[in-house]
Each structure stands twice: as C-alpha cells, then as structure tokens.
Amino acid sequence: MPKTTLVSLAASLGVSRQTVSNVINAPHRVKPETRMRVQHAIAESGYRPSAAARQLRTRRSMNLGIRLMPVVDGINGSILDRFLHALTESAQDEGYRLTLFCAESDSGEIRQYEELLKVADLDGFVLTGTHYGDARTEWLLEHEVPFAAFGRPWSSVEDPFGSGHPWVDVDGGAGTEQAARTLIEQGHTAVGFIGWPAGSGAGDDRRAGWKRAMVAAGLATDTLDIQADDGVPAGAQGAERLASRGATALVCASDSLALGAAAKMRQLFPEQASGTVIGFDDTPVAAAVGLSSVSQPIEDAARHIIAVLAHELAGTNFPGGEEVPERHLLLPPTLIQRTPYSFSSS
Question: In this predicted structure, which of 19-28, 211-220, 281-290 has the lowest mean pLDDT?
Fold first, then answer.
C-alpha cells in the first residue's frame, strides 16, 4: 500500500495542499466542517507530516535536551524511568525528539547547554531536580533559552528576572500531610518523620506537610523529625532513633527510607498492627512488599511539561483554537494504602 502524503491526502479529499497544511499547523484558519473532515482523514490514513519540511518551515530542530540524572539506588530510580518514558512519548506526539546528556553537577549541565546549543542546535531544555539557588534556571533565563522545569522555583534566586518560567511540580507537602493525617486518624499520637537534610526544596516541602498535619492535630513534632541521606540503611537507623523517642508510626520522604524503616519497626514492634510506615513515590518495590506510599502523577507531569514547552516554542504560531496549557501547574499526589506482606515462615 503506497504511503500517504500531503499531496495524495489533499487529492483524495478534493482540497488544496495548503488546506491540509493549515489543518495541521494553523487549524483556526480552516472552516470547522472542512477541518473536521481533514482531521478524520488524517487519523484514518495514519499520515504523519514530514519532520524535515517542518524544520525548514519553523527554523527549528524539533529537538529538546534533558540531563540524564544518576540513579541513586534501584528503588527510587524507577520514578526517573517512568518520567523519561512518558516524556519521550509525549515529545514524539508533539513532533519532538529528546537528546539525553550526562553531567556530574549543575555547572557541568550548564556547560552541556552551551555545547549542545552550538553543535546540535537544540530548541530548548527540560530541567529536573530544581532546588534552592538553582544556577541552571538563571543561566537559561539570562541567555533566553526556552525551557520548562519539572520542579517549581523554590525562591526568587531561581527566577532573578521575575519571568515566571514554565514549570510543573507535584505537591509533595500535600502528600505527606495526608499520610500523617491518615496515621493520626488510626490512633497514633507520635508520628515521626524521616526526611532528607534541610535545603533540598522537595525534601523541605515533604517535611512541612507532615508538620502541618501534626500541628493541626495538636501533636508535638520537636523530637520526631530525623534528617538522613536517602537509602534503606538510613531509614532503618532513623526508625530506631525515633522509636526510642516514642514514635509508633512513621512518614518517610522516599520509599528507600520507608523500606528500611518498615523493616526496623517490624523488628522492634512485632505485635504492632501493620501499615505504620508510609513512604513516598509508590515504587514497584513498595507495591511488591505491600508498603503504603504517596504516588506522584509522573505521566501527567511529563505530558504537561512537553505541552507547555511546545507552546512556548510555537509562540505566535500556536493555533488559536487550542487550549493554552497552564505555565505553572502543581499536581496533587495520591496516597496508596496497602497491607504489608508477611515473609515469615510458618
């Protein structure tokens, strides 16, 4: 079967090639009944516009860059995999491709920006892991390079020009607040928190959510907050320290911390009811062992990042009839409650 082209599609519909092109690139210029007929034919035929022709027309490479972050462990790394897969799929749907690159630090990432803009002529970048004093956003804004971030700016330092650059984030504080509130409603009056060292942005946000729930319930927080580097051993150590201070339930900033904490809590309180530890990220490992966890809408975040960045790049050429994506979007997470599996032998 011959491949459908713009010319053959236009001929089969009895319209001009320009009409088909307008339906694809500027649908607001085409009468609704004609637009619907052409769109239906495009969907039925599986026609895909020529990427080369689009690049010539738009003067863009249709390529976006994103830094491939190192995987700290095999647990939380699954979140990065999900995000990257969804981002790639969404980019393809918009006619873009992703260029992956590595960097050891933020300054190294900025050097990669400079190099890729010279040799690969990238249209823009997707940022991940935003944090306090993020020099990457300042550099991109100063050099007027289009970008969208997965992670909000945590202070005015990251947006020195007040441009309000596009970002998408998950409301981690709302997730840990719900987790703590759930444990309090189960009767726990000493709910501890194991989180990352202060200053990480996302980590501070998750800690603040736990604290809001505790304060709202009139419960003390001073001795129930542990700061630790991410990882299963740190979670176990944190749980032991908090249990010695009277904690009977725990909220953790990650599933890695929660897995270590849950194992230690089962060891210290074998008679206690299950489900007293809640993690964050809802990783496959958490699901496998029955650990309750806060789930992030990663796929929704990736889709919106590509949508808002595509809109930024299109500028005045963005079709007027399409919905303009929100430039700043905070997505709500969901608490997934489970009953931990018992692996003890009978």
Answer: 19-28
Q: Express each pLDDT in 146-204 by its tens digit.
A: 999 999 988 766 665 555 789 999 999 999 999 999 999 999 999 999 999 998 899 99
Q: Which amino acid is at 50?
A: S
Q: Which residues are 128's β-sheet partners?
A: 150
Q: Are strands 334-336 and 292-295 parallel, antiparallel or unpaired?
A: antiparallel
Q: Report the half-sphere exposure of 325 (CA within 13 A, side-chain side).
A: 25
Q: Where are the domains of the chain?
A: 63-170+297-331, 172-296
Tokens at residue 233, please?
A: 């051993």
State the Cα–Cα distance between residues 225 and 242, nearest whole angstrom.
8
Spell out the residues 6+ positions from residue 261 whose beta carbon is closer than 8 angstroms to its own.
194, 235, 236, 238, 239, 250, 252, 277
Sheet bearing 63-67, strands edge to edge: 97-101, 63-67, 124-128, 147-150, 167-170, 328-331
DSSP labels for 225-284?
Answer: EEE--SSHHHHHHHHHHHHHTT--EEEESSHHHHHHHHHHHHHH-TTSPS--EEEES--H
Q: State residue 45 phi and psi, 5-degree precision.
A: -85, -20
Q: What is the dihedral of CA 67, 72, 73, 76, to 10 degrees?
A: -60
- 339 three-state secondary structure: coil
Separation CA 125–CA 66 (nearest Å): 6
Contact between 123 and 313 (Cβ < 8 Å): yes
Q: What is the DSSP string of 68-91?
A: -PPPSSTTTHHHHHHHHHHHHHHH
* Domain 63-170+297-331, architecture per CATH: 3-Layer(aba) Sandwich (3.40)
21 token code pair? 């092109």
User: Is 178 exposed, middle or buried, given 0-12, 13-18 or 19+ CB atoms closer than 10 A?
Assistant: buried
CATH of domain 172-296: 3.40.50.2300
**Rg of the chain in Å (alpha carbons):** 24
Round to whole Å and give the CA distance between 48 and 202: 40
CB count in 10 Å sphere of residue 128: 16
